[in-house]
Specification:
This protein is 7% helix and 56% strand. It is mainly beta. 46% of the residues are buried.
Length: 625
């Protein structure tokens, strides 16, 4: 796509969002839930409309309505989010939140940290949507509650569980372009004192040629492999719990996703991966509601076996064991004090030896949430004692005021830190043991309005990151050597609108981030790589009796693929069309055409993105009984 076309596309997105603002005041009654809560931003329940930090929630209904094929597609273009993907389904993907690095985004699955202790970021490309019930997106630093990695924000994924009484089964079948196939099924069973959820899924695709690199010219993936690069994923999710007595609950959860992905490369071209999380939580909440205690044990394991053809080239297993205790004390109505301790133990088992392969971290935090008339105050403070890097203190402070008629003004400030990963420090061939933790400080100012008919928000922010870790690649070193650059500065703004107009459900989001290298070196004032500075997304849906139709338009501006800002990737805009028809009370058929105009674009240099694709889905879900 040429520059003029992209400029028009992004301008169209911006104009549509801006046009929606004056209309929301006269919108018809829409789907806004004033009682919707979010827990990730404070580690306690807070009404989404009253959150002092920017937050967004995607529930199961929205996931199914979007007909997104994977988590990357579902999140792409949402407020503050940009993604980089290396060639389609199941391929390595980076998620950038508010312009921060991909390993600055903490990903939780049912409260369990999923970020790899070696790679740093979470393998979100291997988390199937069929296993997800709800997603909470928190934009801005939350290290004062969660410790390392939560510099750009937190994304928490809740696996499937129904609160409907009785038995709730479901079945989904699907097929589409590139010989893609999927099947998922499961059930939820809830009684008076116990519940059980079992969900399984399988999906596969033959894919397309992921990389246009050249082995002879040492470009891209350094390989000439013009073949289709497929992907397969098998997943199992379990959740169950029992009410031991009034006010005392025990719950366990387990999720495993096994992926097999093909790609192009000179050293490896296929990976077998496993993402696994398991947890056990005990909750004690006496009926008087003054005190709640939560204790949890959990394990996250990610495994990767990498092959060149049938020859095993590398293998590693990262294990993160955690234990936590949290107490929430209601001092008086409108005032909540929380305190907790988190212990994390990381271990790496690899075919190639790491100089150091284990470390522990213990974090202690204290948080306060209080109301003073129309005003609200939130504060938190945390100290993390890392076995390798000593103590790091982080904090956050938030203030909000209700201005009447659903209008709210909020301001927040927070600090964060991230410890270098084992790969940063000790990956064989690119060891950089001198690296220090990255630290950050951020400010956010937001204005929002939430009513029964609409919701909109406008946020502006600035983040400064010290000792940002980057890798340089002096010839002929292809592995790179780590370095802490002096500083990065990110300034940005986000506008979101959600309403119903003339029967049309409208969701519009526009983001601008300016992530700059502020070090004194040769890259001073360059844009940080692989992040588009402007992005937008519009989702429009409407029901016509048993038929529901929708369209999604996404656009991003140009980005640079390298720190030197020499490799420029043009912006792009795509449109998706979807239809859904209820065959009865239990059966639904859905059809989707993605990238309707067959745009060619890249989010990572040399790696193709999907062209026009089609998908057909059949869903069965009887009413609970």
């Amino acid at each position: 796509m040429n520059r003029n076309s992209l400029t028009f596309s992004v301008s169209l997105l911006a104009a549509a969002v801006a046009a929606a603002l004056p209309l929301v005041a006269t919108a018809e009654s829409g789907p806004v839930d004033l009682d919707e809560v979010v827990v990730t931003g404070t580690r306690t329940e807070v009404l989404l409309a009253e959150s002092l930090v920017p937050a967004q929630v995607l529930d199961r209904e929205q996931i199914e309505r979007s007909q997104a094929r994977d988590l990357i597609g579902l999140l792409r273009g949402r407020a503050g989010i940009d993604v980089g993907n290396t060639g389609g389904r199941g391929k390595l993907s980076s998620l950038f939140l508010r312009g921060a690095e991909s390993d600055h985004v903490l990903v939780l699955v049912d409260g369990i940290k999923m970020n790899s202790a070696t790679a740093g970021m979470a393998a979100i490309q291997d988390l199937p949507l069929s296993q997800i019930e709800r997603i909470e997106i928190i934009r801005g630093p939350r290290s004062s509650l969660y410790g390392s990695e939560a510099i750009g924000g937190v994304i928490q994924i809740f696996t499937r569980r129904s609160d409907a009484p009785g038995l709730s089964p479901h079945l989904t079948l699907g097929a589409g372009s590139h010989d893609s196939r999927e099947i998922s099924a499961g059930f939820d069973l809830r009684g008076t004192r116990g519940w059980l959820a079992v969900h399984g899924g399988y999906e596969s695709t033959d894919g397309f040629n992921a990389c246009r690199g050249s082995g002879a010219l040492f470009q891209g993936c350094f390989a000439d492999e013009p073949d289709d690069d497929g992907y397969r994923n098998v997943s199992l999710g379990l959740r169950g719990g029992v009410q031991l007595r009034d006010g005392l609950e025990l719950e366990g959860n387990f999720l495993q996703a096994d992926g097999d992905t093909e790609f192009d490369g000179s050293w490896t071209n296929r990976s077998e991966v496993r993402q696994q999380v398991a947890g056990l939580r005990l909750r004690h909440a006496p009926l008087d509601g003054r005190l709640e205690l939560n204790a949890a044990l959990a394990r996250n394991q990610d495994r990767s076996d990498d092959y060149q053809g049938d020859a095993l080239r590398s293998a590693f297993v990262t294990r993160r064991d955690s234990a936590s205790v949290q107490a929430d004390l209601r001092l008086r109505p409108g005032h909540l004090l929380s305190a907790g301790i988190d212990h994390l133990s990381d271990h790496v088992d690899s075919l190639v030896p790491y100089t150091v392969d284990a470390r522990d971290n213990t974090g202690v935090f204290l948080a306060y949430d209080g109301r003073f008339g129309a005003q609200r105050l939130q504060a938190s403070l945390r100290n993390d004692d890392n076995e390798q890097f000593g103590s790091h203190v982080t904090g956050s402070l938030g203030w909000g005021m209700a201005l009447g008629d659903g209008l709210r003004l909020a301001a927040s400030a927070g600090t964060g830190f991230k410890a270098p990963t084992f790969n940063d420090l000790y990956y064989p061939g690119s060891e950089s043991p001198w690296l220090q933790p990255e630290t950050s400080r951020s400010l956010n100012l937001g204005l929002s309005r939430t009513t029964a008919s609409h919701r909109w928000s406008l946020d502006v922010y600035e983040s400064r990151i010290d000792d940002l870790i980057v890798f340089v690649y002096p010839p002929p070193d292809f592995l790179g050597v780590g370095s802490n650059i002096d500083q990065a500065r990110i300034r940005g703004a986000e506008l979101t609108v959600g309403t119903t107009l003339a029967g049309f459900d409208l969701s519009a989001q526009l983001s601008h981030a300016d992530p700059r290298d502020r070090s004194a070196g040769v890259h001073h004032d360059n844009v940080l790589p692989r992040r588009a500075r402007t992005s937008g997304r519009i989702d429009i849906d409407r029901a016509f009796g048993a038929l529901r139709a929708g369209v999604s338009v996404q656009g991003t501006g140009a980005r640079y693929d390298d720190a030197a800002n020499r490799v420029r990737l043009g912006g792009h805009a795509t449109a998706d069309l979807r239809l859904e028809y209820a065959l009865g009370r239990e059966w639904t058929v859905a059809a989707r055409a993605s990238n309707l105009f067959d745009r060619e674009y890249e989010t990572v240099a040399w790696y193709h993105q999907p062209g026009r694709e089609y998908h057909l889905t059949l869903r069965w879900r009887p009413l609970p009984r």
